[in-house]
Amino acid sequence: MLLIEEWQRYGLLPEVPVIVDGMLWDVTAIYTVYPEFMNSETRNRIITHHNNPFLSPIFKHTVSEEERQQVLSGGPAILLATSGMLNGGPSVSYFANLCEDEKNAIVLVSYQGVGTLGRTIQNGGREVDIELNGKLKHFTVNALVYSIEGFSGHSDRKQLERFVSDIRPKPRKVIIGHGEEGKILELSHYVRRRFGIETYAPHILDALRLK
Question: Which UniProt keywords apply (predicted)?
């Protein structure tokens, strides 16, 4: 959102509406309330100059299916919607409505998990089945598909290692359950070997009682 607002402000992007849908709007509200945790440039802009980029009039919030249909039937726009992997939320509906038109573009800006629709089209899949309203529908992806790296909100390997190292008191067990199987197992072995902490990498449908 920061980049899009800046690009439009400097004329690097066409002045089209930017539609914000899904959990993205709620998360953005947190940044708006706590600008002191932003980088110095954004913090200074919000606090000193009273110019909050997240509140720019270019951003439009949709909450209902009726509003989404109005967006889809309108003119050119930039749509920002969750989930980023196209495995739930309003992004799936938008994708289904837009993917078959070659004039549209799908831009993936986050990690795409194995087995997700996002990973399928990222790997070149152009014939996809999507469940909508309880029915499985087939789509041919004619829209352009782009992947842009560098926008992930996840910690990298070094940050995870440092996090475990800094926890006080040292935990008795670390549960590692988000990522690709090979990476999960490798990190699990490393934490156990490096820090002497018991680790657990649950399988799908495993149940774990926390107490």
Answer: Exonuclease, Hydrolase, Metal-binding, Nuclease, Zinc
For the residues 35-57, what does the mean pLDDT come to? 92
Cα–Cα distance measured from residue 123 to residue 117, given in angstroms and rounded to the nearest whole number: 10
What number of CA atoms fall less than 13 Å from residue 122's CA on the CB side?
A: 19
Domain that holds residue 190: 157-200
DSSP H or E run through 7? helix 2-9
pTM, two decimals, is 0.78
pLDDT digits (tens, 9 = 90+) for 19-42: 999 888 888 888 888 999 988 999
> What DSSP designation does 166 have?
H
Do 133 and 173 belong to one domain?
no
Let me know if residue 54 belongs to a domain: yes
> Taking the CA of residue 173 as centre, how many other CA atoms within 13 Å lie in the half-sphere pointing to its CB?
9
- Rounded to an integer, what distance in angstroms lies between the CA atom of residue 148 and that of residue 167? 33
